[in-house]
């Protein structure tokens, strides 16, 4: 893939993930600013989605 296609794809995935997180937070009555992710199990805050994924994979809850 060209770099433009990869960049566009990455932005689409990030936008979709952010929208899903905001919808999930709205259902729970929580307001989460952009760029902060919280673990569902232990509510630990993460500034990057990759650290949240790592946290969930390693079972640090």
Q: Layout of SSEs?
A:
Layout: H1 3-28, E1 37-38, E2 45-46, H2 49-58
Antiparallel strand pairs: 1-2
How does this model look, in words?
It is a single chain. With 61 residues, this protein is mostly helical. 59% of the residues lie in helices and 7% in strands. It folds into two domains: 1-30, no CATH class; 33-60. The chain has helices at 3-28, 49-58, and strands at 37-38, 45-46. It has a two-stranded antiparallel sheet. The model has no long low-confidence stretch (mean pLDDT 82).
Radius of gyration: 13 Å
Overall mean pLDDT stands at 82
Taking the sheet with the most strands, its summary is: 2 strands, antiparallel
Name the shape in a single word: flat
Structural class label: mainly alpha
Note the total helix count: 2
Key features?
single chain; 61 residues; mainly alpha; 2 helices; 59% helix; flat
Brief synopsis:
This protein is mostly helical and 61 residues long. 59% of the residues lie in helices and 7% in strands.
């Amino acid at each position: 893939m060209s770099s433009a296609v990869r960049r566009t794809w990455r932005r689409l995935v990030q936008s979709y993930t952010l929208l899903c997180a905001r919808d999930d937070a709205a259902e729970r009555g929580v307001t989460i600013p952009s760029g902060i992710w919280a673990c569902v199990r232990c509510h630990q805050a993460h500034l990057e989605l990759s650290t949240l994924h790592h946290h969930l994979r390693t079972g640090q809850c």
